[in-house]
Amino acid sequence: MVSPLAGTLTKERIDINKLREAFLHPGEDIAPVKFGTSGHRGQLGRGFCALHALAIAQAVAQIHLEDKISGPILCGGDTRLMSKTTAELCAEVLAGNGLTVILPDMPLPTPVFSFEIISGRASACLNGTASHNPPQDMGLKYNPSHGGPAGGELTSRIEKYANEYLKNPAGIKRLPLEQARAKGLVKTTDVITPYVQALGKMVDFAAIKKAGLKAAIHPLGGASLSFYRAIVKHYQLENVKIVNEIQDPTFYFIPIDHDGKIRMDPSSVYPMKPLIDIVKSGEYDFAGASDPDADRFGCATKQGGLISPNHALCVAADYLIKNRSPKPGMQIGRTLGTTMLLDRIAQAAGFGIDEVNVGFKYFVNGIVSGRYILAGEESAGMSLSGWTPEKDGILAVCLLLEIASKQGDIGALYEKLTAKYGNPSYTRVDVPTDEASKNRVKSFKKEDLKDLTEVAGEKVTKVRDTDGIKVYLEDSWFLVRPSGTENILKFYAETFRGEAHLHAIIEAGRKYFGV
């Protein structure tokens, strides 16, 4: 595959042996455990190493013992270099503390961890993944008994205990894997069949088969491969083809991203270029992809090219409202940085919007209680009530394929929505910064903006300070929030008044906040 930036940037060859050694023997001054929106993440070595995995697992074991949480803990990971090793280390620690473990012998998507928990076969999970980040990165996520990402109070406890074990590794208990298996503390199980069969209650696979729409699926080298294979086979989808089955921990077959790094991001035009090309050529009508742990989605169509996650969420929300008979009082859930076109779609149909802070963990209660018609975020996360309280890229791809099979090109459907409700211009800019600037933005409260009455000719109607600062205007909004894991400030903006107005908002907003 040829990079879209060939000639200007070159791929960095990844030294697997060097990274493995860095994971096992990182040296001194390793990073403390710090959970972002759903887990601890860092570059293999001092950012994330074997000791991080052991310490986090021991912290989880301590919490389960203190809180008297019973039931097996599911351990696994995606197709990254050290995911399998990370899962095995976690299993040894949990077993060393007398806890039972489910350790499947295959890579697992993030939504499958969640599905196993809500199905009652696991009490919690430890999931080795760094999502769509470059191959040099690794991480570990914990999902508790509700199946969704752990909340702040719980992750603070994990951080506290894990960092104590980083300082005192002698307190970490381990039981070698073979002994743990012999004692019956570590077992495996079939995780494919239950998920694939249950997905048939959420997606109309019969309609996909009947329509015969030519669809391409690309797992981007990730853990979803076995699950897409099983879906195609179980539902006899002869019109759906998995177009790339490579699993390589260097991910070298993925085209480089805008900055020359390899990212397995299904919402970026760079790694998705091969799929965009095959739909534009007419070879396929629809192409879908998931990132390595399959919690994010992407799709491309003949008319729309690569479909923005915001656009896909709007099409999905409109479809679900009109075709799934949502109950009165249900809502569309969206994060602070997600398009407000969803608001117009929901309100026109008599449904409300629940705007939450960035992070899928804020959707958990609403999904579990059946409140959401759809819950989505601009970074390509989606789920529905009645399904997992964790974002599910496999579900999203299959649902979008159902919509395309029944109603036509996703890009054309989005255009119909904008013709009816208005066409928003949207952007997100990542601004490099330092801890001091991040802390300055964190310290802002809405009271500090009482003198801000107008931005780019629009009246300020509201300010929210629950996650960064979001400024609402008459037909627009902008949000500035510090990243929880990187030294960047994320600046989001959207307007229904055109691209020129969007740039004016960005310029005024960045100037006001000094970013």
Q: What would your notes on this structure say?
A:
This protein is an alpha/beta fold. It has a six-stranded mixed beta sheet with strand order 1-5-4-2-3-6, with helices on both faces. A six-stranded antiparallel beta sheet has the order 16-21-20-19-18-17. It has helices at residues 16-24, 50-66, 83-96, 110-118, 152-167, 177-182, 192-199, 205-211, 225-234, 273-280, 309-323, 341-348, 364-368, 393-407, 410-421, 435-443, 499-513, and strands spanning 39-43, 73-77, 101-102, 124-128, 137-143, 186-187, 215-218, 240-242, 286-290, 297-301, 305-307, 331-335, 352-356, 372-377, 381-383, 425-432, 454-455, 458-464, 469-473, 476-482, 488-495. It is globular and about 65 Å long. It folds into three domains: 16-189, Alpha-D-Glucose-1,6-Bisphosphate, subunit A, domain 3 (Alpha-D-Glucose-1,6-Bisphosphate, Chain A, domain 3), CATH 3.40.120; 194-421, Alpha-D-Glucose-1,6-Bisphosphate, subunit A, domain 3 (Alpha-D-Glucose-1,6-Bisphosphate, Chain A, domain 3), CATH 3.40.120; 425-513, TATA-Binding Protein (2-Layer Sandwich).
